[in-house]
Amino acid sequence: MRGDLELIATLINPGARVLDLGCGEGELLDHLQCNKQVNGYGLDKDAENIRICVGKGVNVIEQDLDEGLANFTENSFDMVVMTDALQAVKEPRELVRDMLRIGEECIVTFPNFAHWRCRAQLALKGVMPVSKQLPHSWYDTPNIHLCTFADFEQLCETESIKIIQRRVVNADHKEKALINWAPNFFGTYAFYRLGKSA
Fold this sequence. Notes:
alpha/beta; 7 strands; 34% helix; globular
């Protein structure tokens, strides 16, 4: 299983009701169903991904995240997961609000646009960064809302969203001491476990 999905799996309790937004081929839900007996559903808009999910026995619904989550009632899930998609949706703030409306908690992961390599490309070359975690050129990228860890935490504060846990990792999804010293500079990806404000 991918390193980022392994890390997410450690944050989900056995038997939880899980919704995976942009579930892809269902790798996370398949793992969680087999190893943690979760009751899970995935959302994806790609027909091939949906076919693969069905083949694995993963419950999947064809849905575009840009259409929102109005078809789900409040507190339908224990955990709502969105992996590496925050930067690609049209209304990220609204989607995070919706995630916490339908879930007790949520996990959001995204690449850090303030990583030192991105900063160096902008400063030294004057071009939009291209990296392992952001591999597209500016004209063909699916990423429309690039952000930094500081940006996301400011959004959480503005929206009164509780940050229960934050894990910042490198490109190989490993936590390192240097990253902990300056996460917004050295961190490549962040994993935020969020809850509703008290």
